[in-house]
Amino acid sequence: MKRLLTGLQPSGDLTIGSLIGGIKQSVEYQNEYDSFIFVPDLHAITVPQDPTLLRDRIKKNVALYLACGINPNKNTIYLQSENVYHTNLSWVLECHTYMGEANRMTQYKDKSKKQENVSVGLFTYPILMAADILLYDADYVPVGIDQKQHVELARDIAMRFNKKYGSTFNVPNPLIPKVGAKIMDLQTPTKKMSKSDTETKGIIFLLDSEEVIRKKIMSAVTDSEAKVYYDIENKPGISNLLTIYSSFSGLSIEKTEEKFKDFNYGNLKKEVADVVVEKLMQIQKKYQEYMDSGIVDEVLNQGREKVEKIARQKYEEVMHKLGLGRN
Ligand code: AMP
Ligand code: TRP
Question: Which of 36, 58, 48 is nearest to 296 (CA)?
């Protein structure tokens, strides 16, 4: 079975966009691949973080992933910071990456423009990401298009290393997910619903209460035509509500459109709120059970134990090839 590896940034609370666009795909992949899912918490500190919030979010997000259907028996789930070989290998890879290559990373250019004090860690972050991937000989790395360049860097470093020291790392492939439904912000339906936005009125978080979910959906921005049909260009608000209904109910967009063609906007919103509430209440119930049961720690302990062995072996091979240490 081919190995798939992906990192889930703990940078914000998960939204229905994360569920529809990301988690749902991972739930499908788990049946096809030997899946490794880890929380790149060391990556999170490349920008300032509040330690209490970060600690809380890491565990919450893992519990939410499980509640959304990520099966701990089919996935190896672990925290990056609990395995020292990520940073050990990252140093070795830094010494095999050229400044010119690192300088070309467009995400660094974007992110560093938005900050006052840019850390060296933000600059070297793609090399830590290469270590995350190469340590486990991943075949596939599902990432958004913004991360493709980083996976290509990992490939280049792997090939260079293999050429110089003999076959050591598997050369990974980025896996760009098929474009699924894109969930837009309820207040600004021309913009993607994003978990890191500071204006939260148009964002449904997976842990929002029923009351808050209903309120956010009932006040979603629409248009003045008072006719329900799907037209992203001219009716982004209504189209987004139809997309949300379709994604949560499993009904196609065409059938969803047909179902609501004679509804007024208020009644459409109420139906959308009903399916979202039903699904999220199920998820929240499971989430609470996972949080109360200690299973998150169990899963993370098991993951840590398993990946430590794999990573140590790979790192020792690398040390040997480089002439480091005594063996
Ligand atoms: P995030 O939760 O933002 O880290 O994203 C996790 C995955 O969900 C990524 O593959 C994103 O592309 C996807 N995603 C995030 N927000 C949305 C959204 N509003 N609509 C569709 N997919 C999304
Ligand atoms: N950089 C990725 C992001 O911002 C997260 C990440 C870190 C990752 N290490 C990884 C993703 C390794 C895939 C493989 O989303």
Answer: 58
Nearest to 205 by CA among 194, 190, 191: 194
Ligand nearest to the CA of residue 204, numbered in listed order: 1
For residue 195, what pLDDT is reported?
86
Measured in Å, residue 253 CA sits from the centre of ligand 2 at 32
The structure's pTM equals: 0.90
Selection from 248, 255, 253, 252 nearest residue 271 by Cα: 248
pLDDT tens digits, one per residue of 240-286:
999 999 999 999 999 999 999 999 999 999 999 999 999 999 999 99
> Does the C-beta of 132 come closer than 6 Å to ligand 2?
yes
Active-site annotation holder among 24, 59, 148, 195: 195
Name, in order, each residue with C-beta under 8 angstroms of 130's C-beta and a sequence gap of 6 or more.
Answer: 90, 93, 97, 150, 153, 154, 157, 158
State how far the Cα of 313 lies from the Cα of 217, in Å rounded to an integer. 51
Which of 123-137, 179-193, 234-248 shows the lowest per-residue confidence on average (mean pLDDT)? Answer: 179-193
Among this protein's residues, is 255 annotated catalytic? no
